[in-house]
Design a protein that fits this description.
Elements (H helix, E strand, L loop, with lengths): L9 H9 L3 H5 L9 H14 L7 E4 L5 E6 L36 H7 L1 E3 L1 E2 L2 E5 L5 E2 L5 E5 L3 H4 L5 H5 L12 H4 L5 E12 L1 E7 L9 E12 L6 E9 L1 H4 L4 E8 L16 E3 L11 E2 L8 E11 L2 E6 L7 E6 L12 E12 L20 E8 L8 E2 L3 E3 L7 E6 L6 E6 L6
Parallel strand pairs: 3-15
Antiparallel strand pairs: 1-2, 2-7, 4-14, 5-6, 8-18, 8-21, 9-15, 9-19, 10-11, 10-18, 11-12, 13-17, 15-16, 16-17, 19-20, 19-23, 22-23
Length: 427
Amino acid sequence: MPDPRGFPSLNASLESLQTATYEEFADLPASQVLNENAFSEMKAYILNLYEGVHAQHSFMDESSGIFDCIPYEQQPALRGSSEPVPTAPDLPPLAEASDLGSGSVATRDQQEERNDALAGSLLSPDRTDQYGNIMDCPEGTIPMRRVTLEQMTRFETVRDFLRKGPGDAGSPRRKTERATLPTHRYAQGYQFVNNVGGHSFLNLWRPTIGPGQEFSLSQHWYIGGSGANQQTVECGWHVYPRLYRDAQPHLFTYWTADHYHTTGCYNLTCGAFVQTPSPVFAPGMALAPISVIGGTQYRIELAYWLAGGRWWLYFNGTQASNAIGSFRVSLFGGGALATQASEIDFGGETAGTTSFPPMGSGLFANQGLQRAAFQRTIGYWAPSGGGLINANLIPFQPTPWCYTAEVNLSGSPWYETLWFGGPGGSC
């Protein structure tokens, strides 16, 4: 009898995983699983990730990603913990006399003048999926994007699935080293400054990922430490077909405590990020609508802030209700990010194996408003307290024939702005 929800329940999915064989998954067109041992590790990893988890409701997004509404305390980072739900703080002010207003959404006239409008989550209690399931979660639960064996076997090993990208992709090394990494490219702005988080608006694009290409993104990095002890918390949007099996931009989080060596994962794919019990915000969710070249620029707002022993992530606003979740500083042991970061980075990154995809709109930074990708109202919070401080970014564009980056500072509401992007190709 078909499942009334239109797809297997979480329990049914886990039961079928028990009898899954290496041969059936190794033969799938997108499968890259290394060998039978790697396949067995993947099965064990997923079963452990969902041990004791009971979904109260499930729904599917437009790209066939399944979200399970699980009790807050059953998420991977809290399994077996009696930790109470932490209270997220409101963020400090973005700027004095700012016209951004409550929730950082400009007035209608200001939006039309700038052709700059807020994008957001596709999850909503007013929407249903293709099978009629409400795209919303009951109170006290979180929407967790389901991790499946089909998804994981698109990677060679469990660690490959969890890492930022192929090889060293995503690693925020010294700027002189980044141009030599074989699997990823950058166009961004950076600043060495002690901080406890920062903020920007990121306009939303859908770059095309072709053969031999991995992902394209726009993000924040907050970095501390050096060498093998380098640590990061990260957030942004990325188009990553191998991870999501679609070509849509998705909200993501990432972290590492040891320079991407043995730690790090996206979203809730490991026991690191603690998601708040919000029914419509979820790492891994698809974002819409998309910016239009020469037309409306749709943006999201992201911020990290270190407070109360947690790196809090905020989405589309600066109030406590906009906090998606947090990384506890205990993840970083006695490392740098247990107390503060020493560098901020904002901008684009791509990854590939034989060529590199477009970044942002696919147009270079000098194309400017309504054409190039941007991040604006970029700033950081000092460890000593106070409001958001305008960043003073240094542009970094090691492959300017593929991607460029330009920084300029203006008045309210744009403040520090980074323009970046390009067509990619053989970089």
